[in-house]
Design a protein that fits this description.
The protein is of the alpha/beta class. It is built from eleven helices and twelve strands. The strands form three sheets. It has a seven-stranded parallel beta sheet with strand order 3-2-1-4-5-6-10, sandwiched between helices. The protein has a three-stranded mixed beta sheet with strand order 7-9-11. Strands 8-12 form a two-stranded parallel ribbon. Helix 6 packs across helix 8. InterPro entries: Epimerase_deHydtase, NAD(P)-bd_dom_sf, NAD(P)-dependent_oxidoreduct. This is SDR family oxidoreductase.
């Protein structure tokens, strides 16, 4: 299958490129910069130049391909306005790709986060919240999945808050980045909140399986660790970086404070049973031991 891929040089995207190529697919990667284009070519992908705001480029990429995997997203979380701008850009991009695929029967796999279900791990049957800072993204993902009614084999892979590789990535990676800059490992809330996690290489396998096998209009959970306690996560980071740990207010984490402080365990039982997905790489706490000291 010739696959049009957005976000192909990020932590997850680069793993997806490798997974697709290793399984006899070819990749047409969207590349915004010279550096991204070079990285994609070195990985073995063909390149189409453009960004998520280049809607004609997105339509052309989708038209050339046998299927689409969307991973790109603007990761400026500095202000609520910046997040809103990224959500709006992605929404328009998904609509453009969907228009190009309507009526073709081609697979279209998009990405979102796992939902929150109070008092229990969330499942594939739970709906994403359409409220709050990233509620617009949830609505955009739902619109992609609904393309099943317009002749698209659409599905969504939900990623946990931490997708990691060699200790880097996701919410845990942000805690590490903040700690390296401040000299203190900080976290919001009381630390008992649980974050699900998955290794990037395991997540990549699920994206391939969804591309190849997912029924239209379905959701899948790329969750290996159902929920690691934040206190356990920061303890490993602190030991690796040889830094102290400090609980701080939710407000200190800016627009993402409420999300960071939420208890959000998640299950992937249905995904494993239906698609035969089974994570094989180290869990988050083990992988964090690969962090290099400051």
């Amino acid at each position: 299958m010739h696959v049009f891929l957005t976000g192909g040089t990020g932590l997850v995207g680069s793993a997806v490129v490798g997974e697709l190529l290793a399984n006899e697919h070819t990749v047409l990667a969207l590349a915004r910069s010279d550096a991204s284009a070079q990285a994609a070519v070195q990985a073995g992908a063909e390149v189409i130049r453009g960004s998520l705001s280049d809607l004609d480029v997105l339509r052309a990429g989708a038209a050339k391909a046998d299927g689409v995997i969307h991973l790109a997203f603007g990761h400026d979380f500095s202000t609520a306005a910046a997040v809103a701008a990224s959500v709006a850009e992605e929404t328009a991009a998904l609509e453009a790709i969907g228009e190009a695929l309507a009526g073709t029967g081609k697979p279209f796999v998009t990405v979102s986060g796992t939902p929150t279900a109070p008092g229990r791990p969330s499942t594939e049957a739970d709906e994403l919240s359409s409220e709050g800072l990233v509620g617009g993204r949830s609505r955009a993902v739902a619109a992609v999945v609904a393309l099943a009614e317009r002749g698209v084999r659409s599905s969504a892979v939900r990623l946990p808050r931490t997708v990691h590789n060699n200790g880097d990535g996701g919410f845990a990676g942000l805690l590490t980045t903040i700690a390296r800059g401040s000299g203190v490992v900080t976290y919001p809330g009381d630390g008992t909140q649980r974050w699900p996690a998955v290794h990037a290489l395991d997540a990549a396998v699920l994206f391939r399986l969804a591309l190849e096998k997912a029924e239209p209009g379905t959701y899948w959970h790329a969750v290996a660790d159902e929920g690691d306690r934040v206190t356990d996560i920061v303890d490993v980071i602190a030991r690796r970086l040889n830094l102290p740990v400090k609980a701080v207010s939710i407000e200190d984490f800016g627009p993402l404070g409420q999300i960071f402080a939420a208890d959000q365990p998640s299950s992937s039982d249905q995904t494993r049973r239906t698609l035969g997905w089974e994570p094989k790489h180290p869990g988050l706490l083990a992988d964090l031991k690969n962090l290099q000291p400051a």
